[in-house]
Amino acid sequence: MSGAVSGTPQDLGAAQLRLMQGLAQEVTVLRPELLGTDATVGELAWVFGKDRASLGDTWCQRLWQRADGAGRLDAWAWVHLPYTVARSDGSTYTSNGANLTWQVHPDRPELLDEILDWYAGQAAGLDRFITPQAPDTDMLARLPAHGYKPDAEMGGDDGHWVQLNRRPLADLSEPALPAGFRFRTAAEVGSAAATRAHGGRFPAVHPRHPACHASRVVGGRSSSVDLSSGAAPPTSRAAYWSSVTFSIHCTNIPSRCSTTAM
How far is CA 212 from CA 132, 171, 172, in A? Predict the structure, then answer.
């Protein structure tokens, strides 16, 4: 039915990640509202690239290969187990729970039960967290039977949640910056500066979002994210004060397959 990948850092490599990104591209075309926040082409590259060396031994992955032999996936699941990491301010952070990232082809929702059962086995005895998309009625309908219940605090207006916005890339107007700002790309400023810019997005550590621990990113390591980039290279742009203080940072990873950018 499927091939299982779990355990050590080398088990999830660039080849496996590109299969996962391939499913992300398909879902982007077919049912973009089902695309998980951490399952986009760009987020997969980012989390894999920045954390593989330090946290890869706390990851468990499983890939469900498509039966047609075309080398594509019907589903994948990625469990982040407890870990302790050093932060850039010299302190440490420990995560005691487990978090699941997953993606399923829209035509194979029955695999969701298998994913949840596998997750329970990998994270036995731990608090397990999962963040489904609001339109993902197939997953939401299955969660109560697997012991999950909504977290009203985290899902509230002051909680931690992500809104996925999507728009066509045609007819974009030229951006206008306030006086004293200028655009620079990550290639122009270097990986250390780009890391500082990205780190400013998440000043506080959040226990249930593996991508939002900016303080885990060590200067100079952001270049490893390029290892898993897709058909087109990612472009990071930042708006700066004249004093080279970062104001806004965004990462654009275009996909020629889906004609979208994330």
Answer: 17, 32, 29
CB atoms within 10 A of CB 115: 23
Among the listed residues 28, 193, 209, 229, the one whose alpha carbon sits nearest the alpha carbon of residue 130: 209
* Per-residue pLDDT, 27: 95
Residues 24, 32 contacting (CB under 8 angstroms): no
Contacts of residue 87, defined as CB under 8 A and 6 or more positions apart, other chains included, come to: 93, 205, 215, 216
Helix (H, G, I), strand (E, B) or coil at 69: coil
Taking the mean position of all CA atoms in its chain, how far away is CA 191?
A: 20
Yes or no: say if 76 and 64 are a contact pair by the CB < 8 Å rule: yes
- Strand spans (E) along 27-156: 59-65, 73-80, 83-86, 92-95, 98-104, 128-130
Rounded Cα gap, residues 109 and 136, in angstroms: 10
Q: Exposed e or buried b for every residue in 43-65, given b needs 16+ CB within 10 A?
A: bbbbbbbbbbebbbebbbbbbbb
| CATH number assigned to the domain covering 3-152+169-261 | 3.40.630.30
Q: What is the pLDDT of residue 199?
A: 59
DSSP tag of 21? H
Tell me, what's the pLDDT at 64? 93
218, 88 in Cβ contact below 8 A?
yes
Residues 6+ apart with CB under 8 A from 259: 169
Please provide the DSSP assignment of 103-117 as one string: EE-TT-TTHHHHHHH
Q: For the chain, state the CA radius of gyration.
A: 19
- How confident is the chain (262 residues) per 10-residue block, as mean pLDDT? 38 88 94 90 88 88 87 93 85 90 96 95 93 92 93 80 76 84 79 66 48 40 40 42 44 47 44
